[in-house]
Amino acid sequence: MRDRAPIATDVIGESRSPTPEVKVRAVARVWACALWGLETALVTVEVDVANGLPAFVVVGLPDAAVQEARERVRAAIRNSGYEFPLRRVTVNLAPAERRKEGTGFDLAIALGILRASGQLAVDVEALCLGELALDGALRPVRGTMPRVRHALARGIAAALLASANAGEAAACGADAYGFGSLREAVDHVAGSARVAPTVAPAPAPPERPAVDLADIAGQETPKRALEIAAAGAHSLLLVGPPGTGKTMLARALPSLLPPLDHDEALAASAVHSVAGLVDPRHPLLRSRPFRAPHHTASPLALVGGGSPPRPGEVSLAHCGVLFLDELAEFSPSVLDTLREPLEEAAVTISRAGGAATYPARFLLVAAMNPCPCGHLGDPAVECRCLPDAVERYRGRLSGPLLDRIDLRVNVPRVPYERLRDEGRESSATVRGRVLAARERMAARLVGTARRTNAELTVADIRRWCRVDDDGETLLGAAIRERRLSARGYHRLLRVARTVADLAGSDQIRADDVAVALLMRA
Ligand SMILES: Nc1ncnc2c1ncn2[C@@H]1O[C@H](COP(=O)(O)OP(=O)(O)O)[C@@H](O)[C@H]1O
Ligand SMILES: [Mg+2]
Predict the structure, then answer these.
(1) Would the pLDDT of 9 be above 50?
(2) Residues at CB less than 6 angstroms from ligand 1
């Protein structure tokens, strides 16, 4: 008697279910993700299919490309063998307060319509990203990585995407499913033809650095400058006649830097993902980016922008090196745009739809000739430039930009006998010292967002950059003689701090100050 009671209750419960003839019309919900710069927000694509005159409306601040999704989605649904409902279709991109850009919402909208019109019998429990072609093919979109990571952080583990984007999503740790068409995606969700999750691609084999320090003859001071630059993340300018190895030296810099850690790899790869520059076979960067834009590059190419906005070279160099060869050949207006990223380690592009911010923490290395012919101060070749031509040439670099370059060294001609010297230090040896110095810096800055001496604040400098008495005397004399600004003084101390760190010393000694002064010729 007792054990039958539950069954009886169940039966009664079923027969008393609320009036089955009144059907509650379901609104379909599918997840997508909006992107502004690198900023992301989860978007719920809500689709309602109601009786009424046939219409297809998208609300929730869509931009022109999202509005055009209506045409792509309508055609893609029909050409995939489904029916586009001849009723009133309303799509809301929630939250509605910020503008949605781009073509990445197509897949979510199409799946939402199929779900709301009953052509898809199950809910879509995944982040949906992808652009639809009129024939129903699914196309990749930019910015997959930051969007997938955003969804993952909010507990959405699965992602449905174009095949070309699935590797990026898998590399971020998502259960990624890649499709060639809307039809394949629907069959997968419905369970009629499941596809296997994409396996996270293997990381790229480590890149061999372009140049090893051991390849470079002589140039002891510029090499020392490279070591200091790599250790403290100090920006560096190399000045010298043509053919003395400036470009070579700059290309050796990556070989001295610490390896990318996982967070840096994700951050740098996210920028490449937004720029559409991800290698689908190895979506996650393994080596620090080395970007060397040509001197004819536009401000847009250098710092980013456009509509929809794209990151520029400074952001593609995030966590890596930005190399500006022939610095004086860049147009002054282009160089001027570098000030913000150098100061803020980020670029903000303000536009009608709201600002986009891209990270831009890069190590700047630049090279230039001392004058238009390149031979000023060169003992081997006479300089043929008129004094005011030299003046104009150097004037192309603004004071504020030069002021932000920590290290400036001359790269002289290497005497013939030195070119054949053997027993040069390799990059691996120098890198060992760089890593040890970085550890000292990190220990000092533990608990802050700063990691390197180049980022020391004025308060940090007061606390950590104590100079011994002889050093103070040397500093005082140099400041009077060179009429250094407060900013110049602080830069000098940061560099001296790095020199001392490379020597394993807590105090900054006169020797360290002397090296720092030498590196600001
Ligand atoms: N210090 C050096 N040690 C070894 N090779 C050098 C050195 N300087 C120049 N070279 C050779 O000269 C070439 C040109 O050097 P490069 O770095 O382009 O000079 P720069 O940029 O100063 O004009 C290099 O590819 C290299 O073969
Ligand atoms: Mg060169």
Answers:
(1) no
(2) 216-219, 240, 242-248, 367, 414
